[in-house]
């Protein structure tokens, strides 16, 4: 690395208060320019092909929007877990089904906010490109009414923040983003990069944009979640994906410490190439897993359709109607069947009994009244392996 290369991502500048803050250089790196060697080009091709397979798999799904429901929630759960929430996908689904369980984590609201923020961002893309204005709207949705809501939802920070172990001071921080008077220019350059024709491959551009957003850290809280949501928004905006089904947080969570280390190495050493390789590996890995999940959904749906057609007799038509609804709402009640099909309570109870008897639904409350039933096999397709252990979460600090 040349002496100038050390500063290709920006410089640490000592502030009047005595601490050193990082002032990022505009993207893309120019001194020296980004080097996409043969190994990186191979990773890029692999990631592109994996995304193509994923998009094709989703497009062939019957009623694809029904299945996107779970992909969005999967991303919301994993991205929020990186920030320290404890809620699982089952917890979030239960919260949406209004199951009151005192033993359930109380931070499910944060995950539900993430779902709403992603939906809002995707819904705004027709009228508003990915921009500072859009991320402010998303941030406002993300932080409304949950932990951190006092940290100016939707507003760019006007004070210094920092990243480091819990309870650390500004002087002890692992990383200090640009101070507010420098942040505006950095965000402006970041937005220009998003819309400039740089001739960079799109996935490389998205990887650079995510890393730079995390480096600027424009909010007092929620930067990680907004930055990861940004990846999906950019891919959908450019129509690389027609549906938001690439949850890269799965990969970042699995390799959490490497994720943080490589982001920091871009600032300290200008190591953009190492970050881009990691990012492309993540895209390929997660896209392949999501494609396998999509195929599993198709197989599961067909298996359960055949069971209902063969075993439910005159209740088959209503059974198939309930089955289709489960891909949007995988936790239901007998009242849900009544509302959906218009049958009487006894008929709905008999249909629910048949769904349970044939292993399609499982009762999850253990109660005699106000029971809820879960489409466990479907939820299991989105289950996640254990997170990387022994890694402490960096905390966002502020005065």
Characterise the protein shown here:
It contains 15 helices and seven strands. It is mainly α and 399 residues long. Helix 1 runs parallel beside helix 11 (272-311), helix 2 crosses helix 4 (108-124) and helix 11 (272-311) runs antiparallel to helix 12 (316-326). The chain is elongated, with a radius of gyration of 23 Å. Its EC number is 2.7.7.108.
Distinctive features:
mainly alpha; Fic-like fold; 3-stranded antiparallel beta sheet; 55% helix
Helix/strand layout:
Blueprint (H helix, E strand, L loop, with lengths): L9 E5 L5 E5 L13 H22 L4 H19 L6 H8 L11 H17 L7 H12 L18 E3 L15 H16 L6 H15 L6 H15 L11 H6 L1 H14 L2 H40 L4 H11 L4 E2 L1 H8 L3 H13 L4 E2 L9 E2 L1 H5 L14 E3 L2
Antiparallel strand pairs: 1-2, 3-7, 4-6, 5-6
What does the average pLDDT come to?
86
CATH architecture group name of the largest domain: Orthogonal Bundle
Distance between the termini: 36 Å
Largest pleated sheet: 3 strands, antiparallel
Shape: elongated
Instruction: Give the full name of the CATH homologous superfamily of the largest domain.
Output: Fido-like domain
Radius of gyration: 23 Å
Portion of residues within helices: 55-70%
As a percent range, the share of strand residues is 5-15%
Can you write the helix and strand succession as a string?
A: EEHHHHHEHHHHHHHEHHEEHE
Strand order of the largest sheet: 4-6-5
- Total strand count, please? 7
Structural class by sheet pairing and helices: mainly alpha
- Can you tell me the CATH topology of the largest domain? Fic-like fold
Secondary structure tally, helices: 15
**Low-confidence parts, pLDDT < 50 over ≥5 residues?**
385-393
Query: According to CATH, what is the class of the largest domain?
Result: Mainly Alpha
The total tally of domains equals 2
